[in-house]
């Protein structure tokens, strides 16, 4: 099951990241969306995902984690495919909302499924770290393959192909995934779902460590998501060459960031499983501050590209894997997907609150000032994690 899970993680990353590379350029170049519209899409998408996240997690904990993933794949493929069919802002907003909802059925379900099926608590952190590296490797592959396809054909056609393939990946989950160690609730499902939700809330309220990572996730994800949606616009404004097609430059940049991320995760795998997690999270946030200030005030696209590599190659993968392992180590099998859904809710809430704020700054002032606001969020995260009650108390991941 571990091999099947790692392979699926790689395949999904190939399609998702390659699709987003092409889509991010498509939204700016073909659809002509403004910086405010780009960030607003992320905020509205997150608002819908926020509403769906906990119900989706409870379904995974009471009915089936495997079939939650199948639903996710079908919805994801549909939304990705539809994105390539429209250029108007309202239509693209709708496709991105559906895309956000599709992830709610996967967030938490995937980690909970592999944790239960492996049934080896001492090994699960290593497996999750392997999955994170596979995700980065798949993302790099997807950037190259779909980036080349978009360059050789058309961006909208590539988006449609990626979406159709992502939907078909649901068949892989349906036929290859097992679910032997999960016992679904067969009677009084509404009551069981409510009890699952309540137990998850109780766990979070009583765990200072989980509350800490929730707040950090809110700040980091809000900054990262807003910055990620402004990156293409800023690099183009800085004079990124238009020949060959911009997709070629963004592909090269994305692959470089993912290679850096894979190397960083391999170097720190054992460290982030231990007592240094809070410190490493704070250091990653400080790198985020540097990246945002560099991107905001760069004078040429080279410096801007370095900033993007720092953000996507160090900050995003490191904070994401630490938060996942951190929460997974502090929950139990019966509420695992629900607790991870709470974590995802904080990600979405950060995208909404911080995204709306940064969108307003971009609209009322300038793009560099909006990126500076992202740097402030990263700085607040670094201070929060370094003022935690000591790494041994809050970062001791068993």
TrEMBL record:
The keyword Isomerase does not apply. Keywords: Membrane, Transmembrane, Transmembrane helix. The keyword Glycosyltransferase does not apply. The chain crosses the membrane at residues 38-60, 67-86, 92-113, 134-151, 157-175, 209-227, 247-269, 281-298, 304-329, 367-385. PANTHER family: PERMEASE, MAJOR FACILITATOR SUPERFAMILY-RELATED (PTHR23530:SF1), TRANSPORT PROTEIN-RELATED (PTHR23530). This is MFS transporter. The lineage of its organism: Bacteria, Bacillati, Actinomycetota, Actinomycetes, Propionibacteriales.
């Amino acid at each position: 099951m571990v091999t099947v899970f790692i392979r699926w993680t790689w395949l999904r990353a190939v399609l998702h990241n390659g699709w987003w590379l092409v889509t991010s350029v498509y939204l700016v170049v073909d659809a002509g969306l403004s910086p405010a519209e780009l960030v607003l899409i992320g905020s509205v998408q997150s608002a819908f995902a926020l509403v769906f996240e906990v119900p989706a997690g409870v379904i995974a904990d009471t009915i089936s984690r495997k079939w939650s993933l199948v639903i996710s794949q079908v919805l994801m493929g549909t939304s990705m495919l539809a994105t390539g069919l429209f250029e108007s802002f309202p239509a693209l907003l709708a496709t991105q909302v559906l895309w956000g909802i599709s992830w709610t059925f996967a967030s938490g379900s995937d980690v909970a499924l592999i944790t239960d099926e492996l049934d080896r608590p001492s090994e699960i952190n290593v497996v999750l770290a392997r999955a994170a590296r596979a995700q980065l490797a798949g993302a790099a592959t997807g950037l190259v393959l779909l980036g080349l396809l978009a360059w050789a054909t058309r961006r909208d056609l590539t988006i449609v192909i990626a979406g159709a393939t992502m939907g078909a990946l649901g068949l892989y989950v349906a036929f290859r995934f097992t679910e032997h160690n999960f016992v679904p609730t067969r009677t009084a499902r509404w009551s069981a779902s409510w009890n699952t939700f309540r137990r998850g809330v109780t766990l979070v309220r009583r765990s200072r460590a989980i509350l800490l990572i929730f707040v950090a996730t809110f700040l980091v994800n809000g900054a990262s998501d807003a910055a990620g949606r402004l990156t293409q616009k800023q690099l183009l404004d800085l004079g990124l060459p238009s020949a060959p097609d911009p997709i070629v430059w963004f592909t090269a940049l994305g692959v470089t960031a993912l290679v850096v991320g894979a190397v960083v995760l391999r170097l720190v795998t054992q460290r982030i499983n231990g007592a240094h997690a809070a410190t490493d999270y704070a250091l990653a946030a400080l790198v985020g501050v540097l990246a945002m200030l560099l991107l905001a005030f760069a004078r040429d696209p080279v410096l801007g590209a370095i900033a993007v590599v720092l953000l996507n190659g160090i900050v995003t993968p490191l904070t994401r894997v630490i938060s996942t392992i951190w929460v997974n180590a502090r929950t139990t099998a019966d509420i695992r997907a629900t607790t991870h859904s709470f974590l995802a809710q904080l990600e979405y809430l950060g995208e909404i609150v911080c995204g709306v704020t940064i969108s307003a700054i971009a609209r009322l002032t300038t793009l560099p000032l909006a990126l500076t606001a992202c740097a402030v969020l990263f700085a607040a995260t670094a201070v929060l994690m370094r003022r935690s009650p000591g790494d041994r108390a809050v970062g001791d991941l068993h």
